[in-house]
Amino acid sequence: MKILSISLLAAMFLLTAACSSSEADTTSNTTETTASSGGQENVKDDDSQQDVVKVAVGSKDHSTLVAALKQAELVTSLSNAGPFTVFAPTNAAFDKVDKATLTALMTDEKKADLQNILQYHVTVSALKADYLQDGQVLGMVNGDNVTVSIKNGKIMLNNSATIIASVPASNGIIHVIDGVLLPPSK
């Protein structure tokens, strides 16, 4: 009986040692990953359709818009699930804005004004160009409205900017426009 107890004790010791060694091996082979700070805009995904911000970042014609979104701290908001319809002015559209005004808007002191203007280019829904109708009024994120008009087959916003292209995104749709929309004065 004494030999059986010693054998059983030795077997338990060997089993415990083997388990401890196995656990040590698996933990030493694992790598530690740290989550990057920031929001949805920091998620790296090269396989899925891009969100509206990543589409804009990938467009050489929207570098001014991307810089403005960063300055206004709106990248995270527009990287979220949406859906959003973004009326995205091209660099050429921003070139039509007085240079001194644009430079002033890109300062911290005018951040609230810049946010207001950029939010005037976004509505919370995904509206394809086919859904837009003459006389339709769209409520924009900043609380103001944009009026759609259709003339000669061209879709215009507030009679000042024309949609020149539409690009689908994972969280909405981007309508590329040839003008910068300015919210009504209050």
Query: Could you tell me the strand content as a percent range?
Result: 15-25%
* Gyration radius from CA atoms, angstroms: 28 Å
Number of helices: 7
Taking pLDDT < 50 over at least 5 consecutive residues as the criterion, the unreliable ranges are 1-36
InterPro entries: Adhesion/Biosynth-related, FAS1_dom_sf, FAS1_domain
Signal peptide: 1-24
Domain FAS1: 49-181
Protein name: Fasciclin domain-containing protein
Short key terms for the protein model shown above:
186 residues; alpha+beta; seven-stranded mixed β-sheet; 7 helices
List the helices and strands and how they pair.
Blueprint: H1 2-29, H2 52-57, H3 63-71, H4 75-79, E1 84-89, H5 91-95, H6 99-105, H7 111-119, E2 122-123, E3 137-139, E4 145-151, E5 154-157, E6 161-169, E7 172-177
Parallel strand pairs: 1-7
Antiparallel strand pairs: 1-2, 3-4, 4-5, 5-6, 6-7
